[in-house]
Amino acid sequence: MSKLNSSDFKRYSKFVDGLARKLTKFYYSKLNRTFKVSNKLRGKGFDPVTTSDKAFEKFIKKEIGKRFPDHQVIGEEFGKKKTKSDFTWVIDPIDGTRSYVIGNPTWSNLISLNYKGNPVIGLANYPVLKKHYFNASDKVAYVVDQRKKRKIKVNKKILFKNIKMSAAFHGMLSLNKQKKIPKILKLMQFPCADALSYSHLAEGKVDVVIQCGNKIWDIHPLIPIIKAAGGVVSTWKNADAVKGGNIVASVNNNIHNKILKMLRPITK
Hints:
This protein has two domains: 146 residues, Fructose-1,6-Bisphosphatase, subunit A, domain 1 (Fructose-1,6-Bisphosphatase, Chain A, domain 1), CATH 3.30.540.10; 107 residues, D-Maltodextrin-Binding Protein, domain 2. The chain has nine helices and 15 strands. The strands form three sheets. It has an eight-stranded mixed β-sheet, with helices on both faces. Strands 12-11-13-15-14 form a five-stranded mixed β-sheet, sandwiched between helices. The chain has a two-stranded antiparallel sheet with strand order 1-2. It starts with 5 loop residues before the first helix and ends in a 5-residue tail after the last helix. The model has no long low-confidence stretch (mean pLDDT 95).
């Protein structure tokens, strides 16, 4: 696994911390108004994109370009900028576009910095909630809530019988498959709100998050935050979450392995 040295961590975490504040300011000054919605799937389903998604991505790319012009960039809406750099920024300008469309405040700006393909710095910014999460090393993560910054940790000591689980299948798991995992269904007792659920796990508010069909920009920014807060994250088949797909995040290895075992009937 490729890692940054301490000075690089400091440099890049300071940048994403500042970027979060700029993004929230940008939202309230430019985007907190009427927007247009279109459907990427055009009659084959519903995958909304708004004019705000595109405006956010352009803004984020501009900010990255000013500081790190040689870095590669992958954005959900505008694709990839290729260079020879080992550093790649992965951008989801609005994670939770459906929430954004209906006025639910849980949507976020997700950004990761990858070094040699490995997510090392993550940012999850929630403009309406006025809070953001990021990691400052591979062992330290923070939430900045109403401008107050504090370290966060997962709830490692929770007993399995007491876990709080946030889970959603996003219409990607058939009813027949759901019937094969009754223990998981029974544990699905807490709301799942896109990236906010992963952020809540890192903050110690929930103990397991299960989601379907995460793209790389959905999960890369959360991986370093979850791990720095002491959590575990993988696919349902226990592969590296960097590949995206069906994802499970947990507060410790013991709970993670139990959840993976419960999911096994639909991962064979």
